[in-house]
Specification:
The complex is a heterotrimer of chains A (579), B (138) and C (246).
Chain A lengths: L2 E8 L3 H13 L5 E5 L15 E2 L8 H11 L6 H20 L14 E2 L9 E2 L5 H13 L5 E5 L1 E9 L2 E9 L4 E12 L20 H8 L4 E2 L4 E7 L10 H4 L3 E3 L29 H13 L4 E3 L2 E7 L4 H8 L1 H11 L8 E10 L2 E3 L11 E3 L4 E2 L11 H22 L8 H17 L8 H15 L3 E2 L1 H18 L13 H25 L8 E2 L7 H4 L1 E7 L5 E7 L15
Chain B lengths: L27 H32 L1 H11 L2 H28 L3 E2 L2 E2 L2 H25 L1
Antiparallel strand pairs in B: 1-2
Helix pairs in contact in B: 1-2, 1-3, 3-4
Chain C lengths: L3 E8 L9 E8 L6 H12 L18 E4 L2 E4 L13 E5 L5 E3 L2 E2 L2 H9 L21 H8 L9 H5 L1 H5 L6 H11 L7 H8 L13 H5 L6 H16 L10
Parallel strand pairs in C: 1-5
Antiparallel strand pairs in C: 1-2, 3-4, 3-5, 6-7
Helix pairs in contact in C: 6-7, 6-9
The chains are: A alpha/beta (579), B mainly alpha (138), C alpha+beta (246).
């Protein structure tokens, strides 16, 4: 029995759910389905804490938000996309408020905003310090009111079906029963999030494996700007749990082992008792993470059982402010570090947090493959350029989720039903899954071991500072891991909720994505934003004011090409913070 | 559930365990809960005793004397004693749980639970004192 | 500190067996480890066929709820050191059908969630150009607690009424209904009250109170249910008021 829908959305996080609502609102007669490998409330949007930016205060302007974003992105952001983004952001955020999101408020009832890293003015809307949680639940509960949105919960997509030059649907495993099913669609929107798990220390959940990126890559769509990996400056040392930027926007300080606010040594301004926009602890994330590495090299960081760290001090904010604005941070520190941030300093260090790169899309969310769209962290439009500002990504989910959903709905309204020849592809996929994994005999490699090696390779080569020789070695190691992957064997041969099979498939996605990251990083011979090369320490606008495009090559490794950045009103300039 | 799936929410292969009749012995909260619910039995019994007392009073001094004699028997002393304990338990648990159902806000702030429960206790004591005064004076 | 600790974990492979069994594993003990870390150690090193759900490991996604030594807990927030010397018994959340090992079927809950209409319902929507609905911090405070539910379902496992009578709508769903009822932007409290007054709605609750005890986010679903019962009871008497309509 064939499963057919008009618009199929892969991923039930903020972007996916917003896309579903957008498609349902555009055309109530469309049959929309959301496929997610976890129940939508578990999507990683739920862990976002700090806030979502949109221009709302009287002294603020769309141009200011655009400039902050573009300079934050070290001029790699496509300015037409940024202009559309800042323009549509306030309406999207208001729409979410209308849908019930419990934004924190001013005493007079208006939505409150807080300052955030890299922003000239406060424009970050927040819901205490669990913004992503409240946004996701508001979106999810709103999707429940549309009868035209159906869900496939805990179905894992393994392949994108392509025929006649366009995307015709997907093949997915119903995890609970192990049944492999083709789901045909006239338009597919990928909203599967980022790939933090290719690194060992990350704020990301276990489900962030770059699924959508690898699926699109495998179907021939290029991945853009994959070398730009954001390290969030304040994650807890062992678990990597995120300590939100809001701690700094409320006034927290980063101190080295001597209790010194070391950021002042790195051209980020002078230390003031209260937070100053675009200065010191409110600088952009890439610069703060790079400062940590430099401090570590100077021997001024503390050393603990899980490596080097510095202190985040919010004691001077007082218990009242912490309990009102940062209650979740207090809860996390007490539980996971046995530390009360009201009385003690929080140990933090940079951890991988976000992928600026992703599937190349235009400003409507369309990829280069007809019928395939993408939005959210999985996509690279690009508005974040070489470094994302905090609180732009939650807004991005709404703006581009809506755009992609609308574009996909419009596309689907003009398409015929999928061609029957695609069914043969689906059957091939089912055979492949069975032969390669479930019924295969022999095989010596274990998933956990391969994954750990990949993560170690990535940590060493694609960290905050990179260099050619290490990247080349990493590219070789990853190729080897890809070959060894062919020899992987499963202990779990069951069909019912086989999480080992899912882990193996996720590993295959991560290996593809890791190769794209390393090759893109190797080819970009300059330093820009979060991609810092010790052998090419300067920004090179003559050669590299362009996006890298990684397309799958013959042997599986990517070939890298370049696409110029769209500049409209802000010619490239120096990024200045603290002055 | 999604269309086209091969199983229903109550799939035959999914394992469903039966809840044991002794589920309430699993932890202390459950035992406490069952005892709390059992207090209703004793409240009922003591109400019946009260009705019997009233009827005896109405019927005259002999019936009343007979009633009092019955109440001195060990069985009824025990019943009254245990009943009193359960009624006290019933009252205390009821008062302590009242603030959960009655959320009172004064000036935007929620009145703390112990205040609401406390007011109940105060009212109880005052009423008991009033009843005692009326009964003992006469 | 002992070098290792024993975990006794439920295994259920429906293709091979008709009943779950307990399998023991020896796991290294680390002061910082939670039960979830121990389960991941088993999966990565000892037995790749162990199935369980997890994602954020910071107590906000709600995936990793399981019974630990007979109590429903988020395994990402249950420290091994609290269960020494062991053995630590890890079982799937009770009152849900078991699909496999530690994975339960929560489709029942997903359907109940939809039943209470957990979205803003208004007669007239305010146009976006007019800005946000004004809501003071005090108004936000009215429903904030009930909006913190992560849908982890520990409350359903703790609720004996749900265990005995699967049709009961359950604590989390009712708490979510109350969250919307108390939201100053919503206008459908009466509609939700009608739904919750149905046979398997809030009146099935006997205020055991265990749901609020196990809730990792202090949502206090028991409180929400009792508040709704009070509103429902008072509402019933409305027919006595000459000016009120039923």
């Amino acid at each position: 029995m064939a499963l057919v829908h008009d618009v199929l959305i892969i991923g039930g996080g903020g972007a996916g759910l917003r896309a579903a609502i957008a498609a349902a609102e555009l055309n109530p007669r469309l049959d929309i389905a959301v496929v997610s490998k976890v129940y939508p409330m578990r999507s990683h949007t739920v862990s976002a804490e700090g806030g979502a930016a949109a221009v709302i205060k009287p002294g603020d302007s769309l141009d200011a938000h655009a400039y902050d974003t573009i300079s934050g992105g070290d001029w790699l952001s496509d300015q037409d996309a940024v202009e559309a983004f800042v323009r549509e952001a306030p309406a999207e955020m208001l729409q979410l408020e209308h849908w019930g999101c419990p934004w924190s408020r001013e005493p007079d009832g208006h939505v409150a905003v807080r300052p955030f890293g890299g922003m000239k003015l406060e424009r970050t809307w927040f819901a205490a310090d669990k913004t992503g949680f409240h946004m996701l639940h508001a979106l999810f509960q709103t999707t429940l009111k549309y009868d035209t949105i159906r869900r496939y919960d805990e179905w894992f997509v393994t392949k994108i079906l392509v025929d006649e030059g366009r995307c015709q649907g997907v093949v997915a495993i119903e995890v609970a029963t192990g049944k492999v099913q083709a789901i045909f669609a006239k338009a597919v929107v990928l909203c599967t999030g980022g790939c933090g798990k290719v690194f060992p220390y990350t704020t990301n959940a276990s489900i962030k494996n770059g699924d959508g990126m690898a699926l699109a890559y495998g179907a021939g769509a290029p991945l853009k700007d994959m070398e730009f990996v954001q390290y969030h400056p304040t994650g807890l040392p062992f678990t990597g749990i995120l300590i939100t930027e809001a701690t700094r926007s409320e006034g927290g300080w980063l101190l080295n082992k001597d209790g010194y606010r070391y950021l002042q040594d790195y051209d980020l301004g002078k230390p003031e008792p209260k937070p100053v926009f675009r200065s010191m602890e409110l600088g952009p994330r890439d610069r703060l993470s790079q400062a940590f590495v430099k401090e570590q090299e100077k021997g001024r960081t503390l050393v603990g059982p899980y490596g080097h760290y510095v202190h985040l001090d919010i004691r001077h904010l007082g218990q009242k402010v912490i309990d009102k604005k940062l209650p979740f941070v207090r809860e996390l520190c007490l539980k996971y570090e046995n530390i009360d941030p009201v009385k003690e300093m929080i140990p933090v260090r940079p951890v991988v947090h976000y992928m600026m790169g992703g599937i190349h899309t235009d400003i409507h969310g369309a990829t280069s493959l007809a019928g395939l769209f993408a939005a959210g962290e999985v996509a690279c439009v690009s508005i974040n350029g070489a470094n994302r500002l905090g609180s732009n990504s939650l807004t991005e989910l709404l703006v581009f989720g809506a755009r992609a959903g609308t574009a996909a709905a419009a596309f689907a309204s003009q398409q015929r039903k999928p061609s029957p020849s695609v069914l043969a592809q689906a059957q091939d996929e089912e055979r492949r899954l069975g032969e390669r994994f479930l019924r295969k005999t022999g095989g010596t490699e274990k998933v956990a071991a391969l994954r750990a090696e990949m993560q170690k390779t990535m940590e060493e080569s694609a960290g905050i500072y990179r260099t050619a020789s290490v990247l080349e070695e990493a590219a070789r190691k990853l190729r080897k891991l890809q070959e060894r992957f062919h020899d992987v064997s499963l202990e779990d041969r069951s069909y019912t909720f086989n999480t080992e099979l899912i882990a193996v498939l996720e590993l295959s996605y991560m290996l593809d994505v890791a190769e794209a990251i390393v090759h893109s990083a190797l080819q970009r011979r300059e330093s820009r934003g979060s991609h810092q090369r010790t052998d090419y320490p300067k920004r090179d606008d003559t050669q590299f004011l362009a996006h890298s495009l990684a397309t799958r090559g013959e042997n599986g490794s990517p070939r890298i090409e370049y696409l110029p950045v769209t500049i409209t009103r802000w010619p490239p300039a120096q990024r200045v913070y603290g002055r | 559930m999604s269309p086209g799936t091969q199983y229903t929410p109550y799939h035959p292969k999914w394992y469903r365990s039966r809840m044991s009749v002794w589920w309430w012995l699993q932890n202390r909260s459950y035992v406490y809960f069952v005892l709390r619910e059992l207090t209703s039995v004793f409240v009922g019994l003591c109400a019946l005793l009260l009705l019997w007392h009233l009827r005896a009073l109405v019927q005259g001094p002999e019936a009343h004397a007979y009633f009092l004699a019955q109440m001195r028997r060990p069985f009824f002393v025990a019943l009254n004693g245990v009943g009193l304990l359960f009624i006290l338990f019933h009252t205390i648990t009821w008062f302590n749980l009242t603030p959960k159902a009655m959320v009172v806000r004064v000036g935007g702030k929620r009145v703390p639970d112990w205040t609401i429960a406390g007011l109940n206790y105060v009212a109880w004591v005052l009423l008991s004192v009033a009843v005692a005064v009326v009964l003992l004076r006469g | 500190m002992p070098p290792s600790v024993t975990l006794a974990v439920t295994r259920y492979r429906p293709e091979q067996e008709s009943e779950p069994t307990l399998q023991t594993y020896e796991v290294p003990f680390r002061k910082d480890w939670v039960v979830l870390d121990a389960l991941n150690y088993i999966k990565d090193n000892l037995d790749g066929s162990l199935s369980f759900r997890w994602s954020c490991r910071m107590g906000v996604c709600g995936s990793c709820g399981m019974m630990v030594n007979g109590s429903p807990k988020l395994t990402c927030a249950a420290f091994l050191s609290d269960y020494l010397p062991g053995p630590v018994r890890v079982e799937p959340l009770q009152h849900f059908p078991v699909i496999r090992d530690l994975v339960g079927d929560i489709t029942d809950f997903m359907q109940k969630l939809k039943r209470v209409k957990p979205w803003i319902i208004r007669e007239q929507e305010k146009p976006l150009v007019e800005g946000e609905y004004l809501q003071t911090p005090d108004q936000l405070e009215m429903y904030k607690q009930f909006s913190m539910c992560i849908n982890c379902m520990l409350c359903y496992s703790a609720c004996p009424v749900y265990g005995l009578e699967q049709s009961f709508i359950g604590p989390a769903a009712i708490a979510l209904a109350q969250r919307y009822n108390l939201d100053s932007r919503d206008e459908a409290a009466r509609e939700r009250l009608e739904i919750l007054s149905e046979h398997d709605g809030m009146w099935q609750c006997t205020f055991v109170g265990e749901c609020s005890k196990v809730c990792p986010k202090n949502v206090d679903p028991a409180g929400a249910i009792q508040q709704l019962k009070l509103v429902g009871a008072v509402d019933w008497f409305r027919f006595l008021l000459p000016w009120g309509t039923r």
